[in-house]
Amino acid sequence: MGKLIKTLYSKTTASMQHSFIREILRVTTGVPGMISFAGGLPSPASFPKELLKGLFSEVLDKEGDDVLQYGASDGDPVFKQIIKDFEEVPSLPDDEIMITVGSTNGIYYFTRTLIDPGDIIICEAPTFPGSLTAMESCDARLVGVEIDEYGMMPDSLRETLERLIKKGEKVKFIYAIPEFQNPTGRTMDLNRRRAIIEIAMEFEIPILEDQPYRELRFEGERIITLWELARTEFNNPKLVTIVKSFSKILGPGLRLGFAAGPPEIMVPMVKWAQKITVSPDCVTQRAAARFIEQGHMHKHIQYIIDLYRPRRDAMIKGLETYMPDNVKWTNPEGGMFVWVTFDETFDTDELFNRAVENKVAFIPGSKFYPDGKIKKNELRLNFSYSNEEQILEGIHRLASLL
Question: Hey, is 369 helix, strand or coil?
């Protein structure tokens, strides 16, 4: 195991961060006694298997002639309308929403639409490397802006934009995960959302809002999305495009999500979909539509919240019980992740090898930064996959290595 992990580390350039995480999942899965906090994996207990089994059968029996044909590249019109009703925007025009093969698919199409080779995307630092990989595949250059407990820092964003524009760089959009951010678990507060929108409007730079965890709120008040805030309070419906996913609710294997934004962006995104995926899976779209339509979604989301909240609590309890006083961590109001910060001299890349040998896995924080912004004294822990007993034992194993 140790030799293999060293090999993985030798490959972790910025463009291979996401591949590194996938490899860690591969080499730690199925290892006897391993407790893994590494992946962003939903609990299999959260998958509504019986309901979906019945719905897929029902859809094929009653609507098979329709859903087994080629589908529309922008998505099943039945599913689109049900999503609009569920999101409480029933009058949203059809050309402002498209169904995607997961949210990363939408991120890719958005990037393809706006980016020419060498153009710059502003992102949070740290952020989700899967999105960075999709953007880099479009030959974008990524520039990170530091975040604090309230989200992307407006002063840093403004300074970064001014510096890049002064140099003649082309900044095409700002990418943010405002809710229970991956990897930190932090949530951008309302004042910070307003500040980011104001800066984006000032510099005339669009925003891509990634919201895969929004429904998984355990406590606290729900905050208006950047997408809705720009459309209502700022009267600017063209500024923000939002992408959302059903991966953390129904199961990532379904590969289902959607994007909503101005027609000027959505129409070319659909053209990219025509070239690459032809259409999202028609049977899955209709089964998910019936899942929502029959009233299962709200109850299922509450079930997941009740499943994950005690796991989050167990992780915080374990950190409070076992970690030294100089270690800090986030206490997320929802989502799937806790972000741990050590003294600046500490190296979680080195800790990783020792941890895996002791049958506990995590992702080092350095894997979540774009080039030039790497910090090595942080790590991400996932609490959704393991049960409370495993979480307490895993945190104890990790703390004992310090």
Answer: coil
The CATH number of domain 2-47+299-400 is 3.90.1150.10: yes
Tell me which residue of 299, 337, 308, 384 sits closest to 181, measured CA to CA: 337
C-alpha dist (Å) from residue 224 to 87, 202, 221, 229, 327: 12, 21, 10, 6, 32
Q: With beta carbons less than 8 A apart as the criterion, state whether 276 and 356 touch.
A: no
Token pair recorded at residue 354: 């020792």
| CB neighbour burial string for 179-203, b if at least 16 within 10 angstroms, e if fewer | bbbbbbbbbbeeebbbbbbebbeeb
Within a 10 A sphere around the Cβ of 309, how many other Cβ atoms? Answer: 16
Q: Measure the CA–CA gap between 341 and 352, rounded to whole angstroms.
A: 14
Take residue 342 and report the two structure tokens written for it: 């050590």
- Residue identified by tokens 């992307």 is 152
Give how far Cα 188 sits from Cα of 194, 207, 296, 342, 382, Å: 10, 14, 29, 23, 20
The reported pTM is: 0.94
Spatial distance between the Cα atoms of 360 and 80, rounded to a whole number of angstroms: 42
Helix (H) or strand (E) holding 136: helix 129-136
Within 13 Å of residue 230, how many CA atoms lie on the same side as its CB? 27
Structural contact between residues 122 and 174, judged by C-beta atoms closer than 8 angstroms: yes
Give the start-to-end residue ranges of the domains of the chain.
2-47+299-400, 70-295
The per-residue DSSP string of 21-75 comes to HHHHHHHHTT-TT-EE--S-PPPGGG--HHHHHHHHHHHHHHHHHHHTS---TT-
Pick the CATH number of 70-295 from 2.60.40.10, 3.50.50.60, 3.30.300.20, 3.40.640.10: 3.40.640.10
Q: Which two tokens stand for residue 355?
A: 């941890």
* Spatial separation of the C-alpha atoms in residues 177 and 181, rounded to whole Å: 5
Grouped pLDDT means (10 residues each) for the chain, 402 residues: 46 55 74 92 96 97 96 97 96 97 96 97 96 95 96 98 97 98 98 98 98 97 98 98 96 96 98 94 98 97 98 98 96 98 95 94 93 86 98 98 92
Helix and strand tally (H, E) in the chain? 14, 14
